[in-house]
Amino acid sequence: MDLIGHVHIPAYFKEANNINDIYCFTAGSNIIDGYAQSVFLTGSVNTDSGESEVVYHKWDESNEVWHIHNTVGRLTREGSYKFTLKKKGFKEVDLPSVRLDEDEFRNFLLEFHEILASHPSSGNFEMKDINDKFKNMLCSNTFKVQFDKLSVYFPIVDDIFNSPNFISFDKKFIVPNVIETEYMDLLPKLKDGPAIVKQMIENFYGMYHDKLEFHEHALKLYLRIVIYWSIHECDIFNDDKREVVRQ
After folding, report:
1. Are 37 and 8 in contact (CB under 8 A)?
2. Cβ pair 10, 39 in contact under 8 A
3. DSSP secondary structure code for residue 121 in this structure
4. What whole-number distance in Å separates Cα of residue 175 and Cα of residue 172?
5. Do the beta carbons of residue 207 and residue 93 sit within 8 Å?
């Protein structure tokens, strides 16, 4: 689904092919200029059912209010454009609807490190290009997009793990070592990288959720970010699952 604009006059259209249905919605202008319609969009997606809704809001200059615009086309007569997105794809992303709370994420990293402090350290890194990792581990495009979106939080992880103000140098590899150990245990059991990451998150959540006071959704998101950071740091995903597929 794309939300695009502006083109002066609000509109919508649906493009269908053999793989996906693509919904495009255009707003009008965000200023009153005499020839464009001042319109903005709001929308919602139920990630369980795929039921979705887009509402057009138009500026009524005479009364100086925004009202629901139901004359964009036949499918908006009831006040909104309703449709169902295919669950395959967006369900895998599992991203939060709000911006990550960076202070809470820092607290998670410190608490997670404390819990794992009894594990031995390890720091053997093998540098590889991230695109090679995605290819070798049979990662989907959705996985790549999600990785890119969450990579903006890698500097926070670096700040915690690389600063002696938070964690001493001799203990900085505790969390990476635990992630690497869990990865190596799952590597021969699962078919590809996304499946391994998903199971790692579930395993870590099962082991530590009662020791970390975070909401389930937030905790799983934080775990995903740290695992993605470990991929970026070349702790994991240095293997080639394509060899298994070819055998």
Report:
1. yes
2. yes
3. P
4. 7
5. no
